């Protein structure tokens, strides 16, 4: 089963962004204080438990608990911070992103496979 790797340090984020040259990375920015984010997290889990693209790495940033990592992701990727938010990264650059109620298992499947 595919799982999301928790990104807790800027160094870990930087390594994952660098590795996106070999394997794309989908980052999910999640707020544990937001009901919309909770629904989006459930949609991510539904996608991952279905038939996810196994040629993609999946990471999760808890935006409240790991704010420096979340801020660094927004700065490095030049994607305005939102939460919840899903960002697909290839070669260290954001190539697709969406947020809030647009994060559904169906949308993820359509954009990632």
TrEMBL record:
InterPro entries: BrxC, Thioredoxin-like_sf. Gene3D superfamilies: Glutaredoxin. Transmembrane segments: none annotated. It comes from the Bacteria. It holds the Pfam family BrxC. This is General stress protein.
């Amino acid at each position: 089963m595919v799982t999301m790797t928790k990104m807790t340090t800027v160094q870990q984020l930087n390594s994952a962004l660098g590795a996106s040259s070999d394997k794309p990375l989908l980052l999910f920015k999640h707020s544990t204080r937001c009901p919309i984010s909770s629904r989006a997290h459930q949609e991510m889990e539904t996608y991952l438990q279905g038939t996810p693209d196994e040629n993609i790495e999946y990471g999760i940033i808890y935006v409240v608990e790991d704010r420096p990592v979340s801020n660094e992701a927004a700065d490095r990727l030049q994607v305005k911070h939102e939460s919840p938010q899903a960002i697909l990264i290839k070669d260290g650059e954001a190539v697709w992103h969406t947020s809030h109620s647009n994060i559904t298992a169906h949308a993820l499947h359509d954009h990632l496979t």
